[in-house]
Amino acid sequence: MSLQTAQLLDGKTLAQKIRTQLQSRVRSLQPQIGRPPGLAVLMVGDNPASAVYVRNKEKACQKIGIASFGKHFPAQTSAAELEEVIAELNQDERVDGILVQLPLPNHLDAVSLLHQIEPEKDADGLHPVNLGKLVRSEAGLRSCTPAGVMELLKEYNIPIEGKKAVVVGRSILVGKPLALMLLEKNATVIMAHSRTRYLGDVCREADILVAAVGKPELITAEMVKPGAVVIDVGINRREDSQGNSRLVGDVAFDSVAEVASYITPVPGGIGPMTVAMLLQNTVLSWEKKSKKI
Ligand SMILES: NC(=O)c1ccc[n+]([C@@H]2O[C@H](COP(=O)([O-])OP(=O)(O)OC[C@H]3O[C@@H](n4cnc5c(N)ncnc54)[C@H](OP(=O)(O)O)[C@@H]3O)[C@@H](O)[C@H]2O)c1
Questions:
Q1: Which of 12, 210, 213, 279 is the pocket-test mutation for ligand 1 (most atoms within 8 Å of CB)?
Q2: pTM summary value
Q3: How distant, in Å, are the alpha carbons of 100, 246, 283 from that of 123?
């Protein structure tokens, strides 16, 4: 019997609500702008997980009326070829967002490709210009996963100002930008990582605890302050003894749900919010461009 007392932070439902709002924005503005928003997802190689993510993104685009300009390249594609494609997409008036699906094959450098994307079309919010704007608290395209976390906290009216937030994981994709976003909302932020000593003690201080690590069930109930808000960004595939695989987060959900006040499920938490924020960034770029015409 589950003793879960925490309320679920339902990312799936909120993501659906955001998609419906975006769909009506697209419908009402399209006649005026004269074309739909456009997103180009570039995938290189045949990573099966990436193929699923790309398909999901394209399906989500189709549902709300965003045109997809996705391209799939063979694993041996050179950096020069990809740079040329990105340069064309930067110039293409029909395209408002460009993203390179990670991971890339080893011979390609994700960072240098990212630099080629026009910051105004950087749907993933990872270009140094957009990250710089975040550091300065300026408006700009924000990285999708941390933006999704912030949106979910807002939806459930979770107070952030003055709260102690611990972010476990310091990647440029999730942990670092999220720490900046929490700081912008006046949390007292602690960043933890693989060299953090006494991780349990650090986590137990948190009013808001975020795990963005990639280690199944690293965060256990003993590491969580009673009543804390727990956000699980991790997505890990785990096989049971029968060989069936399922997704688990970085948080031991069942036991942590007995101590936390709020918790995100995996799946159905931050994953769908990330896709919703990608669509939102694309629609925002589209609206912004149309204002310049
Ligand atoms: N829900 C979504 O849409 C979404 C989006 C993106 C990522 N994710 C998931 O989120 C997780 C993290 O992704 P990422 O891209 O940020 O991963 P990453 O680049 O591998 O970064 C992992 C971070 O965790 C830290 N870490 C590793 N082991 C640790 C430990 N034992 N204790 C404390 N910290 C530890 C690392 O510290 P160091 O810096 O010291 O190495 C690093 O900062 C993954 O499971 C990924 O699949 C989900």
A1: 213
A2: 0.97
A3: 10, 29, 9
